[in-house]
Design brief:
The chain is mainly α. The protein has 2 domains: 56 residues; 37 residues. The chain is built from 4 helices and no strands. Helix 1 crosses helix 3 and helix 2 packs across helix 3. It is rod-shaped and about 80 Å long. The termini are far apart.
Length: 95
């Protein structure tokens, strides 16, 4: 099972690293977390600040708009396919 860490834990760890109180390597070994994960937390914090680590199911601010647009494109493509099939059906009925 995958380990999960709550937002406050991540913020506490990242703030210590950003304030140069500790290093990514020391945090990783102390808490038995892989270095790339801790580095990802630091990068996310540097990019989003206090909006980082939004939790399960909540998208990051810049990704939510992209996701919404991708979902709409998918829906419109499906709708377009249905309309094309319907047009063929109507054409066949007229004959």
């Amino acid at each position: 099972m995958r380990k999960t860490y709550d937002r406050t834990f991540k913020l506490e760890i990242v703030r210590k690293i950003v304030a140069k109180e500790t290093t990514v390597s020391s945090v990783a070994s102390e808490y038995n977390i892989s270095r790339p994960i801790v580095s990802r937390w630091v990068a996310e914090f540097n990019r989003y600040g206090n909006k980082a680590f939004s939790g399960k199911g909540t998208r990051l601010p810049d990704k939510s708009k992209q996701y919404a647009l991708e979902s709409e494109v998918k829906r419109l493509k499906e709708e377009n396919e249905i309309l094309k099939k319907f047009a063929v059906f109507v054409k066949q009925k007229k004959k």
